[in-house]
Amino acid sequence: MRLALLLLLAYHWSIAQVNIVQLMGIESSHLTTFEAHKLTPETATAFHAMQVAALQEGIDIQLVSAYRSFERQQYIWEDKFERYTAEGESPEQAIARILKYSTIPGTSRHHWGTDIDITDGNIKNEKRVLVPSKFHGDGPFAALHKWMQENAQRFGFYLVYTKDAKRAGFSYEPWHYSYLPESKVFLNNYNSRMAFAYFKSVGVNGSEHIDRDFWDAYYHTYVKGINTKLIED
Fold it and tell me: What is the DSSP letter of 191?
């Protein structure tokens, strides 16, 4: 069943000229290695240019996370699902809790190689770096956040999960940026229904509580609940 779906996904790519298998994090041959992380070549080039510019102003932009495979996202999802249900939460409560910050496997923007989580390499020995408060006020990454807000768009990078009361979906992440020239194209060519079929075929823990209606609502609210600059024509 799983092999048949992979072949179907590959067939879809041959027609649409978009590799949905890669957009789901199943295959990564389109990516290049940059500082021990995987990115698309275009994203890597743009990131390096931004990194050099920031370093001239004392900001050492470092990657915490870039490409993430389907299997890695599945591990993150299942680990949280098992921990939360073991704590006494219902499957539905556990899924809602997971969706504050973590995506359903196959739907993560980190599958694409266009999205990055960043910190400032000047800050050493900081524990739990990806915490919103650390990017504001007197936080250790406030200077990084300020520089990115003022300069990132010049290099094609936009904050994904903005601090906007009108935005639905995942919680605010001041560390997560996306390379718009490629990620907008990837999102426009992402096939949600095919992703759902593959997700259900794999047997991800908790997937029995996610039906088509839930998936469609999730896709609209979470996957598309992003900075409007990454969607607008």
Answer: -
For residue 85, what are its two tokens? 């249900």
How many whole angstroms separate alpha carbon 108 and alpha carbon 70? 8
CA distance 68 to 113: 8
Task: Report yes or no: 54 and 60 within 8 Å, Cβ to Cβ.
Answer: yes
Q: How many CB atoms lie within 10 A of CB 90?
A: 11
- Provide the residue-wise pLDDT of the chain in tens; the chain has 233 residues: 454 444 444 444 433 445 889 999 999 988 999 999 999 999 999 999 999 999 999 999 999 999 999 999 999 999 999 999 999 999 999 999 999 999 999 999 999 999 999 999 999 988 899 999 999 999 999 999 999 999 999 999 999 999 998 999 999 999 999 999 999 999 998 999 999 999 999 999 999 999 999 999 999 999 999 999 999 76
**Residue 25 near residue 106, CB atoms below 8 Å:** yes
* CA of residue 71 relative to chain centroid, distance: 14
The domains of the chain, with CATH numbers, are 2-230 (3.30.1380.10)
Of residues 175, 51, 60, the one with CA closest to residue 122: 60
Summary count for the chain: helices (H), strands (E): 9, 6
For 209, other C-beta atoms within 10 Å of its C-beta total: 13
pTM over 0.70: yes
Partner residues linked to 61 by β-bridges? 120
Torsion (CA) 39, 41, 45, 48 in degrees, nearest 10: 30
Which residues contact residue 181 at a Cβ distance below 8 angstroms, ignoring those fewer than 6 apart? 42, 46, 156
141, 129 contact by CB (below 8 A): yes
